[in-house]
Amino acid sequence: MDIKAYTNEAVELLKELIAIPSISRDETKAADCLSEYLNQWNLPHGREGNNLWIGCQDWDNNRPTVMLNAHIDTVKPVSSWTRDPFNPTQEGDILYGLGSNDCGGGLVSLLQAYRIMLYRPRNYNILWVASAEEEISGANGFSRVLPHLPKVDVAIVGEPTGLQPAIAEKGLMVIDGYAYGKSGHAARNEGVNAIYEALDDLVWLRDYKFRKESPLLGPTKMTVTVVESGTQHNVIPDSLHFIIDVRANEYYQNEYLFEFLRKKMTKCELRARSFRLHSSSISPEHPIIRKCVERGMQPFGSPTLSDQALMPFPSFKLGPGESCRSHSADEFIKVSEIEQAIETYVYLLDGLTI
User: Fold this and answer.
1) Which of 263, 256, 310, 23 minimizes the C-alpha distance to 145?
2) pLDDT in tens, the chain (354 residues)
3) 14 φ, ψ to 5°?
4) d(Cα 56, Cα 86) in Å, to the nearest integer?
5) What's the distance, CA 157 to chain centroid?
6) Helix axes 105-117, 335-349, angle to 10 degrees
7) Pairing of strands 166-169, 300-302
8) pTM for this prediction
9) For the chain, where are the alpha helices, taking DSSP H only?
10) CA R_g for the chain
């Protein structure tokens, strides 16, 4: 088949996936749909939970492995949709539907590129992986399937990047902070105000700047996004809870940042929810990135998180669509973007030496 035929198949598959609600932790029917397609195309595959993967018929453990990955789950549709988010609607070049851009377009494009490259000469193994629970970094997503996969040397993650290579990605750490005081009557000089106890720490957090800035990702950012305290106007609050959103560049590990904050924010108790979502990057000199540049693409750093954070091997994001369409009302992907993505993936994979 030519690229047009592969594109048409990809669009039809994507329409079926859009019509199946697959919000994180509820991807079973979407995974079933993908599995049926793989069976129709005679592609034996593995499944762990709602994660699917396919190797290649000429697998050789002595060769390096390239993984193609995208996720099958979506966020919940926002209330401002003006059309049915689960009704795939094509108007000319535009296909509307929840998950079309993030990241159904990348998912089906990578699958078609995999099918094309499966029967072309390669000096590497090729592996396609569809993962669940990406939108919530869930335990039953990529982390669950990773132990079942062979050793991977480099991965392309099909997130929407306007088909430009995102060669670095910020990490994420969420921290719960607590300050404690003693309740009393607001009209009398009683008690210890938990809000005031936290103030110095929160002002320090607002003003502190980490020294190491990344040319691709910029500074490591810490932002207080939630503050909860008090019961009513005339009671001194005896506790305060706040949440810190930490976005690390590649120079700082989450564990280091957490210990640093604990030493500086001495009035508050801090608890990290997880350290697992680290910043990730790939060398601009990696052969596959050099092929990107040869094709006129511009490497950049991405502020948004993906399954890359869970990959203990070099990876980068490259996919059809635009990040600004993700998680928004009337989400869409262009058919021409899917076609261009398939062509681009095949270009990068054809003759690749790693």
Assistant:
1) 310
2) 799 999 999 999 999 999 999 999 999 999 999 999 999 999 999 999 999 999 999 999 999 999 999 999 999 999 999 999 999 999 999 999 999 999 999 999 999 999 999 999 999 999 999 999 999 999 999 999 999 999 999 999 999 999 999 999 999 999 999 999 999 999 998 999 999 999 999 999 999 999 999 999 999 999 999 999 999 999 999 999 999 999 999 999 999 999 999 999 999 999 999 999 999 989 999 999 999 999 999 999 998 889 999 999 999 999 999 999 999 999 999 999 999 999 999 999 999 999
3) -60, -40
4) 33
5) 9
6) 40
7) parallel
8) 0.90
9) 3-18, 28-40, 105-117, 142-145, 194-207, 254-264, 287-294, 335-349
10) 23
Length of the chain: 354
Strand partners, 239: 180
- DSSP symbols for 73-103: -BPPPPTT-SS-TTS-EEETTEEESTTIIII
- In one-letter notation, the amino acid at residue 210 is F
Residue type, 91: E
Residues paired with 76 in a beta bridge? none
Residues 6 or more apart whose Cβ sits within 8 Å of residue 251: 212, 214, 220
Nearest Cα to Cα of residue 321 among 17, 95, 5: 95
What span, in angstroms and rounded, lies between the C-alpha atoms of 12 and 110?
15
Q: And the tokens for 1?
A: 């088949």
Asked if residue 103 has a cis previous peptide bond (ω within 30° of 0), the answer is yes
Interatomic CA distance for residues 134 and 19, integer angstroms: 19
- CA 93 centroid distance within chain: 26
Alpha-carbon distance values, 148 to 157, 277, 316 (Å): 18, 20, 21
CB atoms within 10 A of CB 312: 9
